[in-house]
Specification:
Elements (H helix, E strand, L loop, with lengths): L8 H13 L8 H32 L1
Keywords: Membrane, Transmembrane, Transmembrane helix
């Protein structure tokens, strides 16, 4: 893995997660690249909804 010194911790880790789950390949067709972009967006939405759910549950728990 190459060391990426630009950006902060959050964006470096987000980029690493994206390249691990949805690796970019120059040989991918346009449809496959679009599918990977949509999949990444859906993954981020799922994580965001889970985080909101956890915060909501924690606020009712105390």
């Amino acid at each position: 893995m190459e060391e990426n010194k630009q950006g902060n911790w959050f964006f470096r880790n987000l980029y690493e997660i994206r390249t691990t789950i949805f690796p970019e390949d120059v040989n991918d067709s346009r449809l496959k690249k679009t599918g990977k972009r949509i999949g990444w967006s859906m993954f981020l939405m799922l994580v965001l909804c889970a985080a909101v759910g956890v915060l909501t549950a924690a606020s009712f728990a105390h």
